[in-house]
Amino acid sequence: MNRPQAQLKIRISQGKTVAMGPGKADLLEAIISCGSISSAAKQMKMSYKRAWDLIDELNKSFNQPLVMTSPGGKHGGGAKITEFGQYILDNYRSLIAKTYHVAEAELIN
């Protein structure tokens, strides 16, 4: 009988706010690949407002922004991950990988 694969979902909280979690990390990666919050939201099948709210939480959770935006209009807008945002994303993904490695034996049994 096949058992479902166990998963860890690591969230880093600041007070009652989730400063970083799997969904926010995925959203940052979508912004990197799409270049805009709107396109990233579509890719992730979420509303633009939800994506914007998550970005706002991310930016307010740290001492500097993770995402910078430029207004739309005639020449188009966009969003990009700051150098600090990339640092936070890389470190979060590294934490996940290390945690899985350490917990692998427990998750399999």
Structure description:
The protein has 109 residues and is of the alpha+beta class. 55% of the residues lie in helices and 14% in strands. The chain is built from 4 helices and 4 strands, in the order ββαααββα. The longest helix is centred in the last third of the chain and has 26 residues, at 83-108. The two termini are 14 Å apart.
Describe the structure using short key phrases:
single chain; 109 residues
What's the helix count?
4
**Mean pLDDT figure:** 88
> What's the β-strand tally?
4
Low-confidence stretches: none
Query: Strand sequence of the main sheet, in spatial order?
Result: 1-2
The gyration radius over C-alpha positions equals 16 Å
Helix fraction bin: 55-70%
The SSE order reads EEHHHEEH
Globally, the shape reads: elongated
Which structural class matches the secondary elements? alpha+beta
* Main sheet specs: 2 strands, antiparallel
Distance between the termini: 14 Å
What portion of residues belong to β-strands?
5-15%
Helices and strands, with pairings:
Layout: E1 12-14, E2 17-20, H1 22-34, H2 37-43, H3 48-61, E3 67-70, E4 78-81, H4 83-108
Antiparallel strand pairs: 1-2, 3-4
Summarize the structure.
The protein is α+β, with helices and mostly antiparallel strands and 109 residues long.
